Amino acid sequence: MKFLIITMMLLSLSPGAWADDARPAYFSIVEKQALVYMLKWRIPPTISASNLPTLALPADCSHFPDTVSSERVLIQTLQGQRLYQCQQSLSGGDIQISYPVFNPSLSSLVKYNALSGESYTRMLAPNEYSWTIPETESAYQVALDYTRLGIQHIWEGIDHLLFLLCLVWIAGSFSRILITVTGFTLSHSFTLALSALDLVHLPVPPVEAVIALSIVFLATEIAKSKRDSLTWNYPVAVSTAFGLLHGLGFAAVLTEIGLPQVELVTGLLFFNVGVEVGQLVFVTIVALVMWLVRRMAVTNSFASPKYHDLARVCFSYTIGVFATYWMVERCMQFV
User: Fold this and answer.
1) What InterPro entries does this protein map onto (predicted)?
2) Number of structural domains, the chain?
3) Is 236 found in the same domain as 203?
4) What's the mean pLDDT in 143-163?
5) Is 234 found in the same domain as 324?
6) From 112, 230, 259, 289, which residue has the greatest number of CB atoms within 10 Å?
7) Statement to judge: residues 114 and 31 lie in one domain
8) How far apart are CA 39 and CA 89, in angstroms?
9) ∠ CA(161), CA(165), CA(169), 5° rounding?
C-alpha cells in the first residue's frame, strides 16, 4: 500500500510527460500526378535533432529537379516535405526507414495515397524498417493493421486509461465494473463510428479539453467519496455519457491516421476492436491489482478506514493533477 501511494505521488511530478510523448513517427506519401510523389513527415519531440529518421523511396525515385526539401520546427513536432519523380509506380515497391545514430524503439506510421484514390496505412513496429506498398488492398492486412493501431492508441492514450482507472475504482465489484465498462464501450463505439464516417463533426481541441475535464470530475468524486451521489450509485450513467466524448477523441486519432479507401468498414471495425482489446486487458489488470492490494491490506492489518482514506485521497489527487494539467493545456489551444 505504501509503495502504491509513493509511486502515485512521484508520477504526479511530471504530468506533461504522459500526455502525448508516445506518438509514432508519421510519414505520408501522396501521388500528386502520374509518378510524382510528395513525401511528408512529422517526427515527435522525443527524437533528438541528430537522430531524425528518414524514409527512402525505391532507387528509381529522385528529387524533383526544381524543388528542395522544406522543414519547420513546431512546438511539438518536426515537419517537412519533399517532392519525388519516380520511373514507375510505387505500388508494389519497397520503402525503407533508417536512423542516422540509433533506433530509439519508435514505431512508424506510413500512409500511401495513390492517384487512383486508393489509400494504404501501415504501422511499422520499432524492429521493422521496410514496407512493401501493396498493389491491391487486403482485408486481412487492413484488419491486422487497424487492430494493432487501436490497441496502440488505447495504451498510449493515458487520459483514456486514467478515466477507466477511475471508473474501476468507483464501480468496485466485478459485476458493476462489467456493466460500467460495457456502457463506456457502447457509447464511445457509437460516436467513433459517426465521427469517423463524417456524420458528426466537432472541433478536436474542445473535445480533448472536455475529456480531461471528465477525468477531473471522476477524481473529484473519488476525493469527496459521497456514496449517495449519482456517480457512485449509477457509474454506468457517467461512463456512458462521457464515453460519447471519448469516442470523438478516438475518432480524431483515426481521422489523422486515415481509413483505407476500399476496406473502409473493415478498418473502422477493427480499429474499434483494437481499442476494446486494449481496454479489456487494462481493466482486467487494474481489477486484479486492486483485488490483490485489498487482500494484502487485510493480511497485513492495513484494512482500517484510516489507511483506506489515505489511499483514496492520494489516488484521487494524483489523477486530478494530471487531468487538470491536461485540461488547462488543451484549453490554451483554442482560447
Assistant:
1) Put_HupE_UreJ
2) 2
3) yes
4) 88
5) yes
6) 112
7) yes
8) 14
9) 170
Residue 335 has a pLDDT of 64
Q: Do 94 and 183 share a domain, yes or no?
A: no
268 pLDDT band, cuts 50/70/90, is confident
Same domain, 200 and 293: yes
Question: Do residues 56 and 186 share a domain?
Answer: no
71 and 80 Cβ atoms separated by less than 8 Å: yes
Q: How many beta carbons lie within 10 A of that of residue 171, not counting itself?
A: 21
Query: Alpha-carbon distance 288 to 249, whole Å?
Result: 27
137 against 109, higher pLDDT: 109
Nearest Cα neighbor of 124 from 266, 252, 49, 26 is 26
Whether the CB-CB separation of 165 and 286 falls below 8 Å is answered with yes
Burial degree of 277 (CB within 10 A; 0-12, 13-18, 19+): middle
Q: Which cell goes with 215? A: 477525468
Name which of 23-27, 93-97, 132-136 the model is least confident about: 132-136
Containing domain of residue 118, as a range?
25-136
- Those residues whose C-beta lies under 8 Å from the C-beta of residue 318, and which sit 6 or more positions away, are 8, 9, 11, 12
Is there a domain that residue 311 lies in? yes
List the CATH number of the domain containing 114. 2.60.40
- 254 within 8 A of 192, measured Cβ to Cβ: yes
Query: Do 92 and 166 belong to one domain?
Result: no
What gap in Å lies between CA 251 and CA 258, rounded to an integer? 10
The mean pLDDT value for 109-135 works out to 86
Residue range 21-45: average pLDDT?
Answer: 86
Question: Would the pLDDT of 18 be above 80?
Answer: no
Is pLDDT at 96 greater than 90 in this prediction?
Answer: yes
Torsion angles phi and psi, residue 197, rounded to 5: -90, 5
Is residue 115 a contact partner of residue 31, using CB atoms and an 8 Å limit?
Answer: yes
Say what the alpha-carbon torsion angle 260, 263, 269, 275 is, to the nearest 10 degrees: -40
- List the Cα angle 126/131/137 in 5-degree steps: 125
